[in-house]
Amino acid sequence: MAEIRTQRQNKPLALVLPYIGKRTISLVGNLGAMVIFFSLAFFNIFRKKQFIEIVKQVYYIGARSSLIVMLVGLFTGMVMGLQLFYTLVKFGSVGALGSAVSLSLIRELGPVLTAIMITARAGSGITAEIGIMRISEQIDALYSMRIDPVRYLISPRVAASIISFPLLTSFFDLIGILGGYITGVLLLGTNGGTYFYRVQSSINMVDVRGGFIKALVFAVIVSCICCFQGYFCHMRNDGYGARAVGLATVSAVVISCVMILIADYVVTSFIM
Amino acid sequence: MENVPLIEFRNISKQFNDKIVLNKINASIYENQITTIIGKSGTGKSVFLKHIIGLLKPDEGDIFFQGKSVGKMNKAERKAYMGNISYLFQNNALLDSMTVFDNVAFPLRQTTDLNKKDIEKMVLKRIEDLELTEAIKKYPSELSGGMQKRVALARALVTDPKIVLFDEPTTGQDPIRKNMILSMITHYRKKFGFTAVMISHDIPDIFFISDRIIILWEGTVGFEGRYEEAVRLKLPIIDEFLRSLEGFQDELTGLLSREAFRMHYAGMLGGAATTTAVSAAVFSVRLNLLDAALGHQVSLEILKLLGEFTNRQFNPVGGFSARHSRDQILTIFPHTKPDEARELVAAFAKKLQQGALGVIENMTRPKTGVGECFDIYIHAGFTGVYPDDEIEQIIKRSEEKQEIIATYRCDSGGSM
Hints:
Distance between the termini of chain B: 42 Å
Largest sheet of chain B: 6 strands, mixed
Order of helices and strands of chain A: HHHHHHHHH
Distance between the termini of chain A: 56 Å
Number of strands of chain A: 0
Number of strands of chain B: 15
Oligomer: heterodimer
Strand order of the largest sheet of chain B: 6-7-8-3-9-10
Largest interface: A-B, 13 and 23 residues
Helix content of chain B: 40-55%
Structural class of chain B: alpha/beta
Radius of gyration of chain A: 23 Å
Shape of chain B: globular
Helix content of chain A: over 70%
Structural class of chain A: mainly alpha
Largest sheet of chain A: none
Number of helices of chain B: 14
Radius of gyration of chain B: 23 Å
Shape of chain A: globular
């Protein structure tokens, strides 16, 4: 044993490789578990007694996030209008403001920022709620009552995310374009007719479809990660009880945000 | 009755990290009985129950339900098996975002196709049975620990299960409520005919209602059988454990605990008292009849009252008393002949009438309607005590000669 330790001290790689290996195995294991978890949740969406639960979750994830999403959309559009106006002025192409704002929002900023906002507002709530249910044995109680916890808790949230994300993204896009109009036209004096003409003429169905595909992908990622983190918070090695719920919530938000950006790149590269 | 176990543990082992919680456990649970699991903290009592409901899977061994391996059941069989079981969690595990009504209705809404009206009817019945009507619209966080426990009990019983697992159902309750819950469990078990498996430390009451006990000891089954057998066997570790649980006083009545009573009795026999006359009397009320007529709480209050009066009357003359079944009190009168004991009890009956009448009327008034009436009979049996008598023999002889010593009749203005 002592000999092995000496050998390891002499070779840093011997220390690093097992660590990397362990982390990789854990990552692959978690990914596999998450895929199974999501599949079970997805197929359970279509079972009976789900409609009311899905409506409740659409209200919680969708309706109650709409105000914050629209607020962020408005100011994002206004900032875009401001920044692009001064950039385009340098090239004498202020007329293209409508195109620039709308395309940036619909293709990129709308889906990404909406997903991040929902993660912050609803995703963290989902993780905390499910996590507390786990540590207070409410999930065990569901199981003991012959109620599949994945069907009752996870499926409605996944379904509600799939419904809400594209809707909220479209709200974000719409309000963002209005935000661009406020700064570009009302404050900085660009022609309003030109602005909307450019918006209408430059946006194709491909752009809208791409934005919605991203929203759907983000919905799956966010709902899956947030529910998974809450559901299995009792299996964390770095904390127990309330601390585990807190850590799970932090992990859910951080991992979701990172995965949104990674998925954004991957989906964009496929769509373009 | 005990030939084919309803649920059987065969060589069940369970380990968490390095800690072996259950070590090749063999235990049986029989139909229509109340089986109580007792043991020190951390001996795997909850783990035992969670194996029955499938929340935990054994590392080794198998659980058999009506002779069929649960591990080898197909999906439909397993669903049917699970449908027979309800679980009352130690911390209640109520859904804290739902009201009391919704919590109780939840299993019916999710697992049955009953219409809204039928569900409402069933839920309201259970809520009424468990005296939760005023809390119906409240959330669990707005309720006391005791009320939360009753909500959990209502939820566990609303589906009329065949097996109900109770994980410390009386924790955090006052003595009356503890006994009420235990009375309710006994009552519902008889009414609905379910099999109860319970973790509890409420001694002696738990022994009065249990058909069998399983004592878990350091990962194994230390004893399995009737309580009387456990006491008779006098296995040193088990005996010490039971004594430590029981204490010196019966929480409900304030009388001696059974163990303390035995010690008093043994001390008396060992002393000079054996050369003089010793008498005994057994007092009893028909608690089951009172439960049905007046409800669990009032009947337990009457039992408590009887205990308090017994203590007050007989302690000054050297008598000592303990409950030996749910509704039966045995009093030993040292230095007293049976005739003298009879006189003492007659005086006791008179005082009981004078002192208890008003209290009983106050307690029963809210429970009885206009024109409704009920009788309370207090029985007593007398016997002499002989040097070699076991307590069970004294009780048996006294029971044979029981007579009514006091009667409360509300139709005649409460005369006793």
